[in-house]
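Marked as duplicate of an earlier ticket. Keeping the data here for the record.
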Amino acid sequence: MADDALPPDGDPVGETPDYTPEQLERRRRLIDAAFELGAAGGYEAVHMRDVAATANVALATIYRNFTSKDHLLAEAMSEWTGRLRDRVAQRPPKGDNPTDQMIDVLDRACATMARQPKLSKALVRAMASPDAGVRSSGGAVRSSIADVGDPILAHLDADTRADILAVLGHVWYSALITWANGRTDFDTVADELHRACRVLISPYNP
């Protein structure tokens, strides 16, 4: 089997069963290994065999959790946004109004990604994959972003709040794709997000 290919038909890949604590621990080790390899060498450095060796699990175990390298990296992106959500909960955003608070949250996210550009580009590249597993991970990423933004926009009705967060997510993703392709720098990503926050949120500031 090729290093990053799918296993033969019949293997239970891409399923999301109820995990035992041991299975959850192995899954976490695999995601952490993807973080480590991606941070060191970028997208091309994340090979399933190397992930298995780094995480100290069997190669077949990876394919029982992830359909492909892109699926694994997309799950790593989901994990990353979940950690951002948790950090925001521990240290609320700064700012006198919802616009400034959302900018503060997004600036934190951008600063984290800018510190590890190789890993960030790997995650963004994986999120653009048509892999079915990536689509499911994308839903988790959007959910984490909503969890971060909902308290900031709590003064708005649910539909307006959802619309603003959806458009912000699209702007962020588009700006990251442009950056990952080498067509802009991370300061421009932040500027695009600031502008989107001012346009989308400022009219609704209390």
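See parent ticket for discussion. The chain has nine helices and no strands.
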